[in-house]
């Protein structure tokens, strides 16, 4: 068991394009499968509804931490908060950090989610495992999204 999940994907898209897919709330929603209520803003709560099949009953809630253009986008949230009627607000949220790095073929996107050791013991292992699987899927999702929407300027 470790405290952090780290996934990296090499994207054949320029940093500016990856940045837009990551931080434009409509584009983020398209590949992450969430319908967001509004744009991301540092220090602001981001709300919406999950659109991922089988999880449509779940709400999205995160607090945007940092938006450093074309470099870092981060937010905190309650990982694998899937039990209806459960109040997760007393838990310490995990930190999700996306970093972008220019490469010769495009962009290296890294996501790190940390803080799992602060979760309640009964949820820690499952949240870590499920989010590890989830980030693998999400890195594939953004790659596929950019492959099909590379020239899109919404």
From TrEMBL:
<dbReference type="InterPro" id="IPR013538">
    <property type="entry name" value="ASHA1/2-like_C"/>
</dbReference>
<dbReference type="Pfam" id="PF08327">
    <property type="entry name" value="AHSA1"/>
</dbReference>
<dbReference type="InterPro" id="IPR023393">
    <property type="entry name" value="START-like_dom_sf"/>
</dbReference>
<comment type="similarity">
    <text>Belongs to the AHA1 family.</text>
</comment>
<protein>
    <recommendedName>
        <fullName>Activator of Hsp90 ATPase homologue 1/2-like C-terminal domain-containing protein</fullName>
    </recommendedName>
</protein>
<feature type="domain" description="Activator of Hsp90 ATPase homologue 1/2-like C-terminal">
    <location>
        <begin position="12"/>
        <end position="146"/>
    </location>
</feature>
